[in-house]
Amino acid sequence: MSFADNRSCPAGPARGRPRSEAAEQAILEGVMQLLEDGVPLAELSIERIARTAGVGKATIYRRWSGKEELFVDVLRTAEPPDPELPGTSMRADLIVILESLRQRGLVSRSSAILHNVYAQMKSSPRIWAAYHAGVIAPRRLLMLDVLRRGQRDGELRSDIDLDLANDMFVGAMLVRTLMRPDGDLPEGLAEHLVDITLEGLRPVSSTVL
Q1: How far apart are CA 162 and CA 183, in angstroms?
Q2: Is the full-model pTM beyond 0.85?
Q3: Residue 178 and residue 105: Cα distance in Å, rounded?
Q4: Burial class of residue 35 (count of CB atoms within 10 Å of its CB; 0-12, 13-18, 19+)
């Protein structure tokens, strides 16, 4: 897997990317190259990454405090980007969030590299903690914000435990993507899961938006 930008440059003086951006891209690609070569996460030292990327160790440390933060950014680059929520209704936002989880599931299934990295990451408390703080926790807060707005706007019953509701929505998709690798991830799955779950959480007098 490579994240290199192979687009041809227009005629005229070659300006290229700013040095800092080019160096950061080289570092991210260097990590992925090492992973593709089968190097375990535990053996990826900053020195080895710097040598592969053709930069100095100081260049890496100017951008990341250590390899844990660097790995999180590598995974962010490899995963589909976080979605932009439409904001038209709680239901619409929930569908977009769960669809992004479905897309990540498809990517991790199709990439042996990512599947292996996720498995190794969970065995490293420091890397997992960095990934949780930088990726999982913000996504969870985004989901909770959507549910709070839905509750405020009458799309969700006022007596619902929002933290538990969060687990119900996200957990259903994660079971299908992570714990059931043989389970289908068809288009429309996100909408189906949201509507099934909302059946028991929506105020009795509310209608589907």
Answers
A1: 27
A2: no
A3: 7
A4: buried
Looking at residue 19, what is its pLDDT? Answer: 56
For the record, the structure tokens of 34 come out as: 């090492």
Amino acid identity of residue 36, one-letter, is E
Residue whose token pair is 């899961």 = 193
Among candidate residues 179, 199, 185, 41, the one with its CA nearest the CA of residue 113: 41
- Residue in 160, 157, 172 with CA at minimum distance from that of residue 206: 157
pLDDT tens digits, residue range 157-196? 999 999 999 999 999 999 988 888 778 899 999 999 999 9
What are the tokens at 92? 């619409």
CA gap 64, 152 in Å, rounded? 39
Tokens representing 53 are 């990327």
Neighbour tally for 175: CB within 10 Å? 11
